[in-house]
Write a structure and sequence with these properties.
The strands form 4 sheets. A 5-stranded mixed β-sheet has the order 3-2-1-4-8. The protein has a 5-stranded mixed β-sheet with strand order 11-10-9-12-13, with helices on both faces. Strands 14, 15, 16, 17 and 18 form a 5-stranded antiparallel β-sheet that branches. It has helices at 44-60, 90-104, 135-147, 158-168, 210-215, 221-244, 267-278, 288-292, 300-311, 337-354, 359-376, 385-406, 410-420, 449-454, and strands at residues 3-10, 14-23, 26-36, 68-73, 78-86, 112-122, 125-134, 154-157, 176-182, 186-193, 196-204, 257-262, 281-284, 425-433, 436-443, 459-464, 469-471, 474-483. Helix 10 runs parallel beside helix 12. It is globular, with a radius of gyration of 25 Å. It is an alpha+beta fold and 487 residues long. It folds into 4 domains: 1-169 and 290-333, Nucleotidyltransferase, domain 5, CATH 3.30.420; 172-284, 2-Layer Sandwich (Nucleotidyltransferase, domain 5), CATH 3.30.420; 352-406; 410-483, Gyrase A, domain 2, CATH 3.30.1360. 33% of the residues are buried.
């Protein structure tokens, strides 16, 4: 019996389709196709017509009805976060993850399509990859497929497909690797260790000439070489910025391998140039079986991600999320006594981790938590691990007290920031090293932040670091300052 699976990778300016067949002999590509979209025309109806026509013609070629249709969105349209949570029962785990997502995402989850994937990384610890996308964006693409007569089984992000292909090749080792996904407008960089996502970011490509190299195969060699070398410099800087901005890595930890996806017709020259420039092993990812039996219609530099989507139903333990509105993880649950206890512990961990509030509150919360635990223990044999969490929290509180003794300005500064920053501003990262403070985030009115912070009792020399860029969530900013009491 033959089963067909269709992967559809939608980018801002092109769409890639790959249809695979699974038989008793194995899995192979039936056919593939990619075509351009022209979003600069600002004609949604024409774009939808083109999509439906191209997809309809693709399926009519063999009169095949795929058993599963999987769609991916590019990284720049999805907010991605990763974090660790304790290993526990399914209900408590879901409650923990919902609380962590509320903390990590700077917007109401009810307004988004949200999903997460849990990866056990230790006997007592899980790693979570969480993603959120605007409902309008997801619904738009689902409407496109519905017009073409297809029902979508899953809406994933391109990164999941790429991690699965690396796993299929046996290249998801324990060392730090970079996944670099290049489209005609953006480059997406993700750092991974095995199936653990360290960080992920998307950056717009400033070189307008790069689009020519991306889509046009027969450009003059001199122009192609010039643009490729210029782009490799930008890509190297993006990799370095991503690496140095990741505080969870060791100071001397470096990328051991760069895995390229996409990059259009310029990929062949880019691999060698980037490897020479970075000194890091670089390869354009291609599954082993395609090196021997690749259909003429398959263009790896456009269609590898759609291939990873199509192969996902054939894999044993894939990384997968589903941002389909009808397959959403619940954002709220009715809490029983078990999840209430776990949420109490997790809430305290969050408070300690953020260093918000005053130290004496932590002691009061710990005392309250201790009383709750004593009431729960007779009924909760499954929650024996909470004792260990409680001991850990006591250690966190001692560490917080030590921080306050060594640097008494940190807590008052954080408290002041929470009061001064306007409601249309979301902080994604605060770094305090000795007397240097760096604040990153999004704001609807970034230009107003400098005057507000200049009036701080604890900051001086407040200024923007780099340029303020416009993204979906607002103006992305980085502010640098020196911490000094004026009292």
């Amino acid at each position: 019996m033959t089963e067909h699976y269709l992967g559809i990778d939608i980018r801002d300016e092109y769409v890639a389709l790959t249809l695979v067949a699974k038989t008793w002999r194995g899995v192979g590509i039936v056919r593939s196709h990619w075509f351009r979209l022209y979003p600069e025309q600002k004609d949604d109806a024409a774009t939808e017509d083109l999509f439906a026509r191209e997809l309809g013609d693709f399926l009519k070629m063999g009169k095949v009805k795929p058993r599963k249709v999987l769609l991916s969105l590019s990284r720049q349209h999805i907010t991605v976060q990763s974090f660790d949570v304790p290993a526990t029962d399914e209900q408590a785990l879901d409650s923990m993850i919902q609380l962590e997502m509320d903390r990590h995402f700077a917007f109401p989850l009810e307004s988004m399509c949200v999903s997460y994937h849990v990866i056990p990384v230790a006997p007592n610890r899980n790693h979570v990859i969480a993603a959120a996308a605007k409902k309008e964006r997801v619904t738009l693409y689902l409407d496109w497929l519905a017009r073409a007569g297809l029902k979508t089984d899953g809406v994933d992000l391109s990164l999941s497909s790429q991690m699965n292909l690396l796993d299929l090749k046996g290249e998801l080792g324990s060392k730090l690797q970079a996944i670099v996904d290049i489209s005609s407008t953006h480059v997406d960089v993700s750092l991974i260790k095995g199936k653990t996502l360290i960080t992920s970011r998307s950056a717009p490509i400033p070189d307008k000439e790069f689009k020519k190299v991306f889509f046009q195969q027969d450009l003059p060699e001199s122009l192609a070489d010039q643009v490729t070398k210029s782009f490799s410099i930008f890509l190297t800087e993006t990799l370095e910025t991503t690496l140095y901005g990741c505080k969870s890595l060791e100071n001397e930890e470096w990328i051991t391998q760069i895995n390229l996806f996409g990059s259009g017709w310029g990929s062949e020259g880019l691999v060698s140039v980037l490897q020479t420039q970075t000194g890091v092993k670089t390869e354009a990812v291609l599954p082993t079986f395609l090196k021997k039996d690749s259909p003429l219609s398959f263009t790896p530099s456009f269609q590898v991600t759609s291939l990873g989507l199509a192969l996902r139903p054939t894999l044993k333990d894939p990384v997968e999320l589903n941002l389909h509105p009808q397959a959403q993880h619940k954002t709220r649950r009715k809490s029983g006594w078990k999840s209430t206890a776990v949420l109490s512990v997790t809430t305290l961990v969050v408070l300690v981790g953020l260093l918000l509030g005053q130290t004496y509150r932590n002691k009061n919360i710990l005392d309250s938590l201790n009383r709750q635990l004593e009431e729960i223990k007779p009924r909760a044999t499954q929650l024996q691990k909470i004792d260990q969490h409680y001991a850990n929290l006591s250690g966190y509180t001692e560490a917080l007290n030590a921080i306050e003794r060594q640097s008494p300005l940190k807590l008052p500064l954080l408290q002041e920031l929470s009061q001064k920053l306007p409601k249309d501003t979301w902080v994604t990262r605060i770094s305090i090293k000795q007397d240097q403070v760096e604040v990153q985030g999004y704001s609807a009115s970034a230009s107003k932040l400098i005057p507000l912070l200049e009036g701080s009792e604890f900051l001086k020399d407040v200024q923007f670091k780099g340029s303020v860029t416009t993204q979906d969530l607002g103006k992305r900013f980085t502010i640098r300052s020196t911490m000094e009491s004026r009292g």
